[in-house]
Amino acid sequence: MRNTTILHEANEFVKNGDYEKFLAYCTSDTKWVFVGDRILNGKEEVRTYMKEFYLEPPVFNVEKAIEEGDFVMVTGEIRLKSAEGKYEHFDYCDIWRFENGKIAELKAFVIQKEP
To answer: Structurally, how many domains does the chain consist of?
Structure first.
């Protein structure tokens, strides 16, 4: 299965709020780098992040997905519900690295849009 297909399949679980099924698509030592913000090491830190920031499943729109070798680059928009109950809007560019069909690393560039 192509890595782009795997990523889209995994993200369907995020859209439905089933974060544990999404995490099954990740290596145990997955590393997520949010440039200029934080680095998450391992599934447990990603799980904690999702519980904290995905109060409701995020709403995202993929604009482009480009695959080359073990990498998939995705651009788009994402909306996250804040603790105050308001949606915050972001543009993103994610670079995903795969190992043996699993998500091994994410490097994410995320920019908040003005309200």
So the answer is: 1
Q: Residue 102's domain spans which residues? A: 3-112
Residue 99 sits in a domain whose CATH number is 3.10.450.50
Q: How far is CA 84 from the centre of its chain?
A: 22
Residues 6+ apart with CB under 8 A from 104: 26, 27, 29, 30, 31, 97, 98
Residue-wise pLDDT for 45-104, tens only, equals 999 999 999 989 999 999 999 999 999 999 999 999 988 889 999 999 999 999 999 999
The radius of gyration of the chain from alpha carbons, rounded to an integer in Å, stands at: 13
Encoded tokens for 46 = 């990603």
DSSP character string of the chain: --HHHHHHHHHHHHHTT-HHHHHTTEEEEEEEEETTTEEEESHHHHHHHHHHH-SS--EEEEEEEEEETTEEEEEEEEEEE-TTS-EEEEEEEEEEEEETTEEEEEEEEEEEPP-
pTM of the model as a whole: 0.92
The residue assigned the tokens 């890595």 is 3
